[in-house]
TrEMBL record:
One of its GO terms (biological process) is malate metabolic process. Its EC number is 1.1.1.37. One of its GO terms (molecular function) is L-malate dehydrogenase (NAD+) activity. One of its GO terms (cellular component) is mitochondrion. Residues 172-337 form the Lactate/malate dehydrogenase C-terminal domain. This is malate dehydrogenase. It catalyses: (S)-malate + NAD(+) = oxaloacetate + NADH + H(+). Homodimer. Residues 28-170 form the Lactate/malate dehydrogenase N-terminal domain. Belongs to the LDH/MDH superfamily. MDH type 1 family. Keywords: NAD, Oxidoreductase, Tricarboxylic acid cycle. The keyword Endoplasmic reticulum does not apply. The chain holds residues 68 to 409 of 412 of the full protein.
Amino acid sequence: ALRGSFASKAQKSSPRSQHHLSPQASYKVAILGAAGGIGQPLALLVKMSPLVSALHLYDIANVKGVAADLSHCNTPSQVLDFTGASELANSLKGVDVVVIPAGVPRKPGMTRDDLFNINANIVKTLVEAVADNAPEALIHIISNPVNSTVPIAAEVLKHKGVYDPKKLFGVTTLDVVRANTFVAQKKNLKLIDVDVPVVGGHAGITILPLLSKTKPSVSFSDDEVKELTVRIQNAGTEVVEAKAGAGSATLSMAYAAARFVESSLRALDGDGDVYECSFVQSDLTDLPFFASRVKIGRKGVEAIISSDLQGLTEYEQKALENLKPELKASIEKGIAFAQKQP
Ligand code: NAD
Ligand code: LMR
């Protein structure tokens, strides 16, 4: 859950008490692709965090206006804008967390893998710059196809000699956010209480909600399991179709990414109780990357929670086996792309 800190002290203060406002921590966050559909609302939500002292907004265009606009919000962080490749390096200097939502979104009829040809190059270029300028930062990859862009990022970082698998995250928080929402609706539960781990990857059948592990404990009929699983797997497509050519999820994605940023910052700040699902380098299965719950600490991934994959239902076990070939192929496609580049 977002916990209290997300509703910042600044929100509760009157304008007259502004001079009393200071960040509760001073982390620097960069958003690469900050002028986009996700980037803008994500920047707004991160601007509300009391843990952030500086917000660096980078895009190839249109970022000046976004930064000017946001900078008028009377919350602690300073907003800086960086436009175009020549300012990319500076946008990353001294940054603790880099969030990457740069890239093209789907249109109806497309799969996330159809974005590979454009987004693979974008992610590669941006992560090269992160390696050169913020090698210690936590990296949150949102750009699709996540199942391939995260392995690309790993290869780029390895090539640069700065790969720390504990610091590279594929953002799958939106799958958890959706699962929590849909389960709470279906079972008439209080939203704030519901937590469903979602494992595997972030595309179609590779998205596997573990409904049997829902907290609080709740029982589902076989039909409910099928219906909820399919809805969670297709939720991205649901939005793509509703937007009818105008893009994919941006607002719910920004909400989810902001939650993941806030969790990461709390972890960096010493909170010893931060757990999120994320697509990371993992030894939970025979695949090199896998999404599961992870414990995040001061140095990134502190532990991968293996218990979620124990005691699965027959349905979940079968779905897990079924997703592996597709996820494996997407991972290998990313690795092969990165390795054949100069
Ligand atoms: P968008 O087109 O609205 O915004 C993308 C932004 O990236 C634009 O502002 C564009 O100028 C910028 N950009 C393009 N190339 C760039 C580069 N080389 N450097 C920096 N910025 C660059 O798209 P969106 O709706 O914000 O979606 C962005 C990506 O996020 C898509 O790939 C989409 O599929 C993905 N996405 C992922 C999830 C997830 O759960 N992980 C959810 C929703 C969307
Ligand atoms: C999502 O799950 O909403 C994103 O991955 C965007 C998409 O293409 O569906």
